Prior knowledge:
The protein contains twelve helices and seven strands. By secondary structure, the chain is mainly alpha-helical. The chain has two domains: about 1-175, no CATH class; about 180-315, no CATH class. A hairpin with a 5-residue loop joins β6 and β7 (about 325). α4 runs antiparallel to α5 (about 115-135) and α10 (about 230-245) packs antiparallel against α11.
Amino acid sequence: MSGIIRRLTENIPGPFLGALFVALGFMGFIAWDQSHWWSHKEDYGFGWLVPAFVLYVVHDRWPRIRAALDACGAEGSGRAQGLAGASLTTLAFASLLCGGGLFLLGAFYRAGAGSSYPGTLAITLGSIGVLFPLLFINAPSAASPTPSSWKQDGRVKLVALFVFPVLVWLVSAPMVSVVENNVSLFLLNRVTTVVFFTFEVLGLPIEQRGNVLVLPTGEVGVAEACSGIRSLTACLFAGSFLAAVFMEKLWKKIALVVCSMVFAFLTNLIRGIFLTSWAYNHGPEAIEGTVHDAAGYAVLGLTVLGLLSLLPLFNLKVSFSDGEQRPS
């Protein structure tokens, strides 16, 4: 094990290597704090996969990280100058200061009140605020850098490789209860309305009373678990991971993440229609247990399959008349 670590860390500048170990410590603390919610809230059970996926992405990108490190410290490396450079430095130190304060606030809150939504959110946001500037400030410097825009700054390119490993913890952290409740209620109302409208169009007798659908065989309550918040967060994580591993351009990453949320919403609507149809024919008690749970897992499976089917499309290469292939 020590030999593997030695090979991985060989020739990495001391300050940046130290920043990586500090980042690892922060992520370990986040994982420990969030594990309470992963164990007690089914909506966030996928969080147990997050540390493994973070390690995988870092391992997958390690050659690119090493190359970006070498390029950052090489002669002629791009470095933002003037107002752009001053703005980057100011932003980095401001983020470090605010992030550190927010992290300490969350840590003290957790120490006094135990696991809580505000404490977990403060720890997660504070850690993010610390990690990005920590890596930026400790990036190697070239003796004779070339003035460039902030986009071509070697430090920015290096830190950009850590976007998924740092930001993904926001997905596995439970939202503040008021936000989560509002999102869940919004999704719940949409599901109930669409299911009711579908049965109305088909000419099937049905009545809507709030989030309760009255069928000829009985009443079906569209519970909070059926709102789609669980599939939304899990599919958002899956989409973020696939975007980080398989997409190169930023717009493609964002598009795939958006598609994951759209797929989660649409497949959950299909799930709601299916369960209501099953209750319509077999009675409300028939959708309890196995049928209900199987439909929920099917939503996640269909969304992941849909995202996987989009990968070849996003990576499609277009052939032009000169025979050259260019990525779309």
